[in-house]
Design brief:
Elements lengths: L1 H22 L4 H11 L5 E5 L1 H16 L4 E4 L1 H4 L12 E6 L5 H12 L3 E6 L5 H5 L2 E4 L15 H20 L4 H7 L4 H7 L2 H4 L8 E2 L5 H11 L3 E5 L5 E6 H11 L8 H4 L1 E2 L10 H11 L3 E5 L5 E6 H6 L4
Parallel strand pairs: 1-2, 1-3, 3-4, 4-5, 6-7
Antiparallel strand pairs: 7-8, 8-9, 10-11
Length: about 325
């Protein structure tokens, strides 16, 4: 058991050291690579075979999700037609620890013919790939974490880390903000927080609970029950919000007035000046208001206080906005 723990720690130490060695290699070459990508008029094409290819897919995905249009190209497929995906104005990032990966070497002439800028992530700055590159980023490692020194481990970790360094540096250079990240991640919780508005979730039309101030409470109870939102708005003849009645108001009213409660009018029971929110506000703001005031719904009026909709806590939670 102890031997296994020590082996695992050794792997992590070797890979951590591989990343640390990259720090002193962040130099003018790195800045040149950043500038090439930043001023690229086309797309960033990331390529690599085997384990390097898997790392390349992740780098391409990270670039794409942080404002740099990018995709992954399998170099073996590239030499059989897929190189047509690469066009003038693109930039290629090629990943090869040896710098001699034959599938990548085979597509170099096409890249040169198209005058494509080439950035290489390689462990061999004297390789064929490195010599053909406009910029070489040295991701060499002292040793692999594999005891045999054969399985790509530390080398792929180093390449991945360098890819992250490129992506995040470009993110900052572009002034990429949370809102931009949300735009590229509409299905994630952050995307939902920053993209989904009240108007996207609010109930409107026939499902909107609404009574007049003169409505007897017996009918208001039916309105609350039938619309299944635990609340009804109280509006004047022009639809302007005067107050609300919640199912909590019903319970408290019955406890206070008994049977007489059902003969009272909505205006006698309603809570005046209820909390509201605009339809253009983010749903996460509605959630914050609900949490602050321990309520479960908000009326959504227009600028003239005419009720347009209602948003309920459950509507927000169902969207995963937390």
């Amino acid at each position: 058991m102890r031997e296994l723990i020590e082996q695992a720690k050794k792997v992590l130490n070797i890979e951590a050291e591989a990343i640390k060695l990259l720090i002193d290699r962040i130099d003018d070459n790195f800045i040149k690579a950043i500038d090439i990508i930043y001023f690229c008029k086309g797309k960033v094409v990331v390529t690599g075979m085997g384990k390097s290819g898997l790392i390349g897919k992740k780098i391409a995905a990270t670039l794409a999700s942080t404002g740099t249009p990018a995709f992954f190209l399998n170099p073996a497929e590239g030499s059989h037609g897929d190189i047509g995906m690469v066009t003038k104005g693109d930039v290629v990032i090629a990943i090869s620890n040896s710098g001699e990966t034959k599938e990548i070497i085979m597509i170099l002439p096409v890249l040169q013919r198209l005058d494509i800028k080439l950035i290489s992530l390689t462990g061999n700055p004297f390789s064929t790939l490195a010599k053909a590159s406009d910029v070489v980023l040295d991701v060499s490692v002292k040793e692999e974490a594999c005891p045999m020194g054969l399985v790509p481990t530390a080398s792929t970790t180093a390449a991945l880390a360098m890819g992250d360094a490129l992506s995040v540096t470009l993110l900052n250079k572009r002034g990429f903000k949370e809102e931009d990240f949300a735009f590229f991640h509409p299905g994630g919780s952050l995307g939902k927080k920053l993209l989904i508005k009240v108007k996207d979730l609010m109930h409107t039309g026939d499902v909107l609970p609404m009574v007049s101030p003169e409505t007897p409470m017996i009918k208001a109870v039916v309105e609350i029950s039938s619309k299944r939102l635990g609340v009804t708005s109280v509006v004047d003849k022009d639809g302007k919000l005067l107050g609300i009645i919640t199912d909590g108001d019903l319970r408290r009213g019955i406890e206070k007035w008994g049977k007489e409660f059902f003969d009272m009018k909505a205006k006698e029971v309603m809570t005046k000046n209820p909390k509201t929110i605009g339809e253009e506000e983010l749903a996460v703001k509605a959630l914050s208001i609900m949490e602050d005031y321990s309520i479960t719904s908000l009326m959504v009026p227009d600028d003239d206080r005419r009720v347009k909709g209602i948003i309920h806590l459950h509507d927000i939670l169902r969207q995963g906005i937390v």
